[in-house]
Amino acid sequence: MTRIYFVRHAEPDKTVEDDRTRPLSKKGLSDTQFVYDTLKEKGIDVAVCSR
Hints:
By secondary structure, the protein is an all-alpha fold. It has 1 helix and no strands.
C-alpha cells in the first residue's frame, strides 16, 4: 500500500525580510522536531520537496 504524507513548511522568523536567509522561528524549530519524530519510523522510501 502506498501512503503519502504531506507536510507544510515550518513557521519562519518574520523579522527577517530575505526569504533566502530567513531562519525558522522557535515554534518552527520545535515543529520540525515533531515532524521528524513522527515520520522517522515510517520507512519512507521517497521524499519530494519544493523550493
